[in-house]
Design goal:
This protein is an alpha/beta fold. It has a single domain, classed as Rossmann fold. The chain has nine helices and eight strands. Strands 1, 2, 5, 6, 7 and 8 form a six-stranded parallel beta sheet that branches. It has a two-stranded antiparallel sheet with strand order 3-4. Strand 3 and strand 4 form a beta hairpin.
Length: 197
């Protein structure tokens, strides 16, 4: 579903720029020298006919493998403006880490829509599918407490190399994706719609 269509479905009424916050793990933050999908999203938003749009969030940096910190500004795309680099994502961070941060981030940066890509790192290192689903639900609750009209687009755990060779891990990914789909179906409301991408 395109952003234009999603805006229509969500019935967002906004006098200024429509504000998006990218929330995610290593795939979202990227590392030094990466283009990142956030750049591709910015390109899409810039070309969309229903602008203006804005990317918001408390962080701007890429992960620097040399220092092991999120401290790099070495984006591969020189035309990616600093103001559009804002996000809430972290290398090695998942639902477990973002659930306690999201309310403050939503309050401070006032996104209309959260674009969330989380789960792989949780299942790979921190929590099983049931615990990950609980953390996802806690994240959504906290985001809605900060903004009862928040819209959220959620990406399920996408196919990955580890799942191809680790059957128990693949099963956990599948269980989580089922739980996430159920959460989206059960918790989406006209006031605060959830969309599984």
């Amino acid at each position: 579903m395109s952003i234009v269509t999603y805006r229509r479905v969500a019935k967002i009424r906004h006098d200024g720029a429509m504000r998006f916050m990218c929330v995610g793990d290593s795939m979202t933050i990227g590392r030094a020298g990466d283009v990142t999908w956030r750049y591709r999203m910015w390109q899409h938003l810039e070309a969309a006919p229903d602008g203006p749009h804005e990317l918001v969030g408390p962080r701007t940096a890429l992960y620097d493998a040399d220092t092991g910190t999120a401290s790099s500004s070495a984006y591969a795309a020189d035309d990616f403006p600093p103001a559009a680099r804002r996000h809430l994502s972290g290398w090695g961070e998942g639902w477990l880490h973002m659930a306690p941060l999201i309310a403050d981030a939503v309050t401070a940066h006032r996104p209309d829509v959260l674009l969330v890509s989380l789960g792989l790192i949780d299942l790979g290192f921190y929590t099983d599918s049931a615990q990950t689903a609980e953390n996802a639900a806690a994240f959504l609750t906290a985001a809605r407490e900060a903004n009862p009209r928040i819209r959220v687009v959620l990406l399920p755990v996408i196919p990955n190399v580890r799942a191809e060779t680790d059957a128990p891990f693949a099963a956990e990914c599948a269980h989580f994706n089922e739980a996430l789909a159920k959460t989206v179906a059960d918790a989406s409301t006209p006031q605060s719609p959830l969309l599984l991408a």
